[in-house]
Amino acid sequence: MSDDKMFEFMTKMYSEMQEGFKDIKNNDKIHTERFDKLENRLDSLENEVKKIGVTIDGKLIPTGVALLDGYKDNTEHITIIDDKIDRLQIDVNSISMKVLYNDSRIIEISKSLRKVE
Q: Distance between CA atoms of 59 and 52, rounded to whole angstroms?
């Protein structure tokens, strides 16, 4: 090969290499921009997850405690109502016994009145 051809070949290789380097630099810029966008999205996502965590800690836990308190209150009220129902049942039984006694007395009095007639 002659010197001129060698020089042209090397010049051509040099220019192609420069173009390749430009492409690589452009790709690096594109990838850097993509990574920056991804990093921003991840940061946003992380912030949202933190907000959700705060929401869970701030809203759900006190709500759970409030539900347990409500459950305790309901249990106490149910116990009070059960006691009242028990007392009412005793009163109903007492009245039933008195009615039966009075029925028996009425029957006895009716029999006595028939005998008198």
A: 10
